[in-house]
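Table S2 (continued). Query chain:
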Amino acid sequence: MLDLFKNLGRAKAQQASEKVAELLASADPDAMTEAAILEVESQFRVISEEVAKARADYQKEKKEVDAVVALQNRRMKAAEKLQADLELNPGNTEIAAALDELLRLMEEAAPEIEREQRESDDAEELLNALESSAKQMAEEMKNLRETASRAKRDMLRAEQEREAALRREETAQRVAGIKQRSSSYSKAVEAMERAASSARQDADAAQLRARLLAPAEAEKNVLIEQALAEANGEATPTGGSLSERLNRLKGMKG
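Corresponding output:
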């Protein structure tokens, strides 16, 4: 569980570091580019030093193993010669003792030779790996500034695209607002037009009623007015004797 928390902490720290790097790159891409180049150059110097050390170690191990192998080979030739001499002189105890001593030395040296060979092989493998990494880094450094410039252009292009998208969004929002206001205006105009049409209809109806109720020009003739009055029971006689006229006035007064 403790390892889990440690790994979680390292992951969070890595994420925070990457976020800071993104912010710095956005704020000052040129400075960030130079800083990245300096960082790569620093790493290249470190790996170059490691390559030099690994090469020296390998050369040392190789020299040692070559020496012990060469010694073992000379001993092998000497043992073969003593073996041949002993076959010619089977009873020669001195030759037999010398061969026995030589074989003992070779047998004791065999494990050491194997160890030296393994160490030499390991040193060579490490050197090859470091040289490969250094070569790859050197190739990357050749195009480092161009790669950084391309990354900067990509970042600026992405920022421009983001700003353009925001402007398009704002424009779309304004157009939507205008359309909404235009729709509201159209509804208001339609309502006013309906009200005006209704008012005109009411005015036309009132005007028609007024025309129907108002006396026509022909009805203003005295004879026609009297006839209409008599038809409505409203006749007001204007003729007759003086006594009839007086009685009518008295009746009107009462």
